């Protein structure tokens, strides 16, 4: 058998809020929400001081303020957050080229082989965290494990500013007492289904045969069996040419379709912000992604005659795509995403546009 991989999951601590507190000393020690105040606003990030009151990301701003009346609202500044994210990415690149960013504030790193002479994956994680602290004045938590899903669980284990290492011989003992909700993809609905079978912990899930789980839950049952045994063969995937730029959120509570508009518009702004980095290509297609409470994923897309030219237009089109979701009005959704796809070379697109304009004039 090949030697196990050495995977890190690095996760910045309350990233957007921590950047704001770093740059504005008057915010330090206070409950901070990165969000616009208002009925249609949603919390992008919450400081640890705010989390004590139950404030969480993706929560409506009015709900957050109700939980914490002294909450300080700070408008998001994604240009600044991206600049800090690039600093952090440069630190990662000193150690490995196998970097899979998940967002501005977290990434997987494969450090099975590194560019440095550090003796272990743990030492590499410690060096990365120390460099982030020294160069950005921010803290990061890290998980070290033989695969991605374990590294992600581990990075959340000792937050904030923590490090957790799961060695191969420790995997089953580490997983056994965990509630099944700690496994990736197991939300409230799946927890309920497993609870109905008498399964509350990963250890209890591991006792069930793969065939039984697959019969009940299809391919997802097979995946559950693998996760319960600590198996995850997905490699770290370095960045590739972008096929889609998107932003998505999983909600704290499932929502009906008619309450998704403010979330869709917020995510459209976020996706558009990422799209601004694309200098050589343009996107023609708008994509709306939804995941129902029972884990069915729906996507709806539209390639309009004129490509979206602003975050507002992207949000407008994404909102109209809800009309193509043929589900009962009682259906509730645990996740929504907005994306741009259908990328073409900018010069080629402009040439086609010019040709069409000439032909119709």
UniProtKB/TrEMBL annotation:
Principal cellular location given in the protein's record: cytoplasm
Binding site for Mg(2+): 11, 105
SUPFAM superfamilies given in the database record: DNA/RNA polymerases (SSF56672), Lesion bypass DNA polymerase (Y-family), little finger domain (SSF100879)
Catalysed reactions, as listed in the record: DNA(n) + a 2'-deoxyribonucleoside 5'-triphosphate = DNA(n+1) + diphosphate
HAMAP family: DNApol_IV
Family: Belongs to the DNA polymerase type-Y family.
The name this protein goes by in its record: DNA polymerase IV
Species assigned in the record: Rhodanobacter lindaniclasticus
């Amino acid at each position: 058998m090949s030697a196990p991989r050495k995977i890190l999951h690095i996760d910045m601590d309350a990233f957007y809020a921590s950047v704001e507190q770093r740059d504005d000393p008057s915010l330090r020690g206070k409950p901070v929400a990165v969000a616009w105040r208002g009925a249609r606003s949603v919390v992008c990030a919450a400081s640890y001081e705010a989390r004590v009151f139950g404030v969480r990301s993706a929560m409506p701003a009015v709900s957050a303020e109700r939980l914490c009346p002294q909450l300080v609202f700070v408008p998001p500044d994604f240009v600044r957050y991206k600049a800090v994210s690039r600093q952090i990415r440069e630190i990662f690149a000193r150690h490995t080229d196998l970097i899979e960013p998940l967002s501005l504030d977290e990434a997987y790193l494969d450090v099975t082989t590194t560019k440095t002479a550090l003796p272990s994956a743990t030492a590499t994680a410690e060096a990365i965290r120390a460099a982030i602290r020294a160069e950005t004045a921010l803290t990061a938590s890290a998980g070290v494990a033989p695969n991605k899903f374990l590294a992600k669980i581990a990075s959340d284990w000792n937050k904030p500013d923590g490090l957790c290492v799961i060695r191969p011989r420790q995997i089953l003992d580490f997983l056994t007492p965990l509630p099944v909700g700690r496994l990736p993809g197991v939300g409230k609905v799946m927890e309920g289904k497993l609870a109905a079978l008498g399964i509350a912990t990963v250890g209890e899930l591991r006792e069930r045969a793969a065939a039984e789980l697959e019969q009940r839950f299809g391919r997802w049952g097979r995946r559950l069996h693998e996760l319960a045994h600590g198996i995850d063969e997905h490699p770290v995937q370095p960045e590739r040419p972008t096929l889609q730029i998107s932003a998505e959120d999983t909600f704290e509570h499932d929502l009906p379709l008619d309450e998704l508009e403010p979330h869709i518009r917020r995510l459209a702004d976020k996706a558009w912000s990422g799209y601004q980095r694309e200098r050589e290509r343009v996107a023609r297609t708008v994509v709306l992604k939804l995941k129902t409470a029972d884990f069915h994923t729906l996507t709806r897309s539209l390639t309009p005659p004129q490509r979206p030219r602003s975050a507002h237009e992207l949000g407008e089109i994404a909102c109209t795509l809800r009309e193509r979701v043929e589900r009962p009005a009682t259906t509730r959704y645990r996740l929504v995403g907005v994306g741009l796809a259908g990328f073409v070379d900018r010069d080629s697109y402009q040439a086609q546009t010019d040709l069409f304009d000439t032909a119709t004039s």
